[in-house]
Each structure stands twice: as C-alpha cells, then as structure tokens.
Here is the input.
Amino acid sequence: MRSAELLASIQAKDKAYDADVKLVRVPMTKTYHTALKPDRHPFAYELYVATCYAFDLLQYGGEAYAKRASDILEVVVSRQDQDSSRSTYGIWPYFDEESLDEMDRPDWNMADFHGKKLVLILKNHAELLPPSLIDKLRGAVYHACQAIIIRNVGPHYTNIAIMGAFVTLLGGELLGQEGIRSYGEQRLRTFRDYTKAIGTFSEYNSPCYTPIAIEELHGIYAESGTAGAVADAEELLDLAWHMIARHYHPATGAWSGPHSRTYSTQLRPNEKAFLQNALGQEPEQGQEQGLKPEPGPIRCPEKYRYLFTSTEARYFTEPTLKADETGFQNYATTYQNERLSLGSYTSGSMWNQRRNLLGYVDSGGGNAVSIQLQFLKDGKDFCSAIFTGVQSRGMALFAFNLATDNGGWHQDLDILNGRFSAMDLRIRLLLGGNAANVELPTTQTASRFATAIGETALQVEAILDRSEYGELQLQTEQSEQGLCLDYVISTGEERDFDFHALEQAVWIFTLSLGEVRPLPAVDIQSSESWVTASAQTDDGLAAITVPQKPRKTRELYQENQIQLPSALLGHMS
Here is the structure.
C-alpha cells in the first residue's frame, strides 16, 4: 500500500543514497560494537539502513524503485559472511567501511535484523527482482538462519528470541527447509512458555524493543503458514499490547516506567508513530475482529484502547524474572493518576539503557516533565552502581551499592572490575522534558531537594550517606537537558578508584512525588555487614536491606533484600 509516511521515509533516504556505492550514507550514531568513531567517521554507509531502504522501495513499488532496490540488495548480500568455517558466519558488519574482522566486537543480531527484511522481500516482492538476485537472497536467508540456529539465543532475550523465531520459521517455510522451520516453531513455543511462566516479557516494558517484538509477532501471525506458531504469536501479541496500554500515561503522553531498555527518556518520533499508527484506525469494513488479517498495518486490540485515554488511577506490581533460573526476583511497580506517573524496579544496574526509577508529571499546557534517576561517572551513566528499591504509590525508598565486577558505560564492552580513574562520581535526579524550557522553583537543605512541577511536589532526601569519599555535596544546575539535582560523591582532579579496597559504600534515599506532605520517617538499622532501611507508607511497611561493602553484581542481586508494602501485594499481577 502506498502511503505518505512510506514515501516520506523513502525520500529522506533518497537524499542520502550514493548511486556509485549503491548504499545509504548516514550520520555515525553507533556506539557499541564498531571501532569507527564519529570524530573520524562522522558519516558512514550503514548496511542495515540500506536493507530497510530497499525493503521500503519494493513496498512502494514502481520500476525505478525496484531497480534501485535490486542494486542495493546486490551490495548488501555480498557483505554477509557466508563462510561456515568462520565464527562470524551468517552475519553482517554494521558499515561498508568496516569489515567484521575490523569491528570491536561483531554483532550477531545482524543475522536477525537483516534476515527478517530479506525474508519479507522474498515472500512479498520477489516478482520485482531478477532471478539471479532471488537466488542470492535465498542463500543469504539460509546463512542467516544457520547463524541464528548456531547462536541459539535463549528466551530471556525477548526481541531477539522472537526475531530469530520469525526469521527461521518464515525462512524455513520459504526455503522448503523443514529443519529450519521446525526450529523456528519450537523457538517461539519455548519463548511463549518462558514468558507465560513469568507473566510478562523479561525484556520488560521497553519503548524501543517492545514495538519490535510486536512487529515480529505480527509478522508471524499474519505471514506464517504454521498454525501452532500463529496461535502462539496471537497469545503473545495480546500480552505485549496489554503491557504497553496499561503503562501509557494519557495526561503526559508518556510511556510510564520502569523501562528494562530504552534509548531515550522521552518517546522518540518512531515510537510515537508506532503508537499513533496502531491506534489510528479501526478494522477496515468487512474485516471481522478476531479473524486473521491479511498482511497489513499493526493495530492495538480494541479491548485495550481505552487505557490510552482513561485518567483513572492505576497501581500494579509484577515479577519480571524467572526466579528459579536467576536466583532472585525483580519486581516492577507502576503508579499513575491524572497528573503523574512513577515506576520503579526493585533492583538493577544503572546503565544508560535502563530506567530503574522514572517519573512523568503534567506541567500544564500539555507539556510533561520527566524525572530520571541516574548514577554518573564523568557525566556518563555508570553500570557499576546497583540500585535496590521499593515503591508505594508516589513514594520510593531506594539505595545504591557499588559492584566490583561490572563496567563503566557498558557492562560487557567497558569492563572496569571496580578499578578505574575518574574525575567525577555523582547521583543525579534529572528533570527533563519541559523542565528544559521552564525554571522550576527549587529549595535545598543539607540533604534534601524539593521542587514543584505545576501542582505536583517532588522531594528527594539522602537518608544514609556512608562511604569513604566524604559527605555528599548537593548541587543544582540548569542544562540543555533540564534541571539537574545532584548528590556529588567526588569531583575535581582525576583520581583512582578501587571498590575492592572500600569497607563502606552505600547511599540510601527517599523520594516523594505527588501532593505536598512530609517524607516518611525512615528507620536505619545497621550490623557489621548490612544496613536495613524501613518506612511506614500508605500501603504498609516498606524496607530494603543492602550490604555496607561493595560486592560482585550477582551477589548484590541475589542477596539484597526488599520488603514490598503489604497492600501493594494486593496489586500483584
């Protein structure tokens, strides 16, 4: 179907298309896996962008677009590693300028991402392509399927577990390869059973990856000829849409937290477009609800649409892990009313894709202020800080510990193992969104910040400051991002940090978002090795128990303790 949105996407890439190279040249935004750096390579020929461009051209149709798509696909297929003796067999590099061997660490997800587009091209647009290219595309799909099968990602990796099932299921059907098709069907069934055992996706409530999961599940539902897989996809689609719908906050237009993974605290244009398109049209005349649709636009189920406009209060918590596998549970809690939302996990690393504690407030005039908790090393989110917390409606009690075996900006690609040099460590409450455009009235004492966002009060207080780096220093700063409320642990000239040598490093806070009221009194009980903080809330006693000394990440996840308020347990999903 020709659409203005599709044409606009094509025209944007038309401007970046290099007819000599037959690829699209885009600004360098990748930070993981590639050795190319923006200062030396501000632009690069990104292969997956080119594959998506070719797919869009074929969707729109026309002889000229089909010819250009064919040219692009010839180049893309030639860049796949098709040598089965190599460890990178079946995958693609990110950029034409950089081979797989030259990358910092090749990304095996590229077999899934390229594979899904090539499968759909062969399934729906093969008549527009020359026979010689079709043979090459079939070979590329086969190699991508083999890479996916060899890697065999587990069901905990939500979007890639689904995407790999999509590629192998539909790829196997397309190629007439029963072994590949059967693998894809079983992979999806395994993911379904794993997800049902938890009650939600383990890659929980992700504004960037839940839409991708829905796209792949919709593709299986609409395109596969395997009845069991279609039924599994339908069940999982319902689960995904329910998760999105009840986290949507109509007053702010925000996707409430907590977020397992996201690339932006504010919804990005493509994420907004996904929701708008999914909600924008009723089923076409003559298409009965409940019947399998022809391949077409993704739609939110009718039964969940009211949640995108209802201002009724919502309050729920749910487990997000398979505890018998991980050795610990991580609960996600969300509270919303007509003015605000607040969401939090009970544990998590403070890396830049995760939002362990996240709020949104209607600041008037249709504008929203976001409230993001961060732990920063030299201005970048710090994976070696581990969050533990409990929430009762608009109140949170939380702590930070330090891990001796984690990373800096990434837990795998920037390993520090508790020893590094830095100029600055700080805990930040970043008020973003509309807070970048207005001046919020802020007061502070020795340990507390308070501000007002429209009719909503925000308070945060350091209850326990126990480390060998000296007392926390409070700072406020207005930046392009918004208002920064900072608890500074250490700043100044570069110095060495060694978490293994610390006997104490723990910080405990309370936060309140809502009406103006005193923060709850927090009782602190300490032993030689542990600290327990507890507070009476509207829902009952909330408590956390954390160690005084830095430890390994897994130990912190498994041994840190939380007590959810008793009334909150009645809101358990």
Notes: Confidence is low (pLDDT under 50) at residues 281-294. The chain has twelve helices and 25 strands. The first helix runs from residue 4 to 16. The two ends are 40 Å apart (CA to CA).
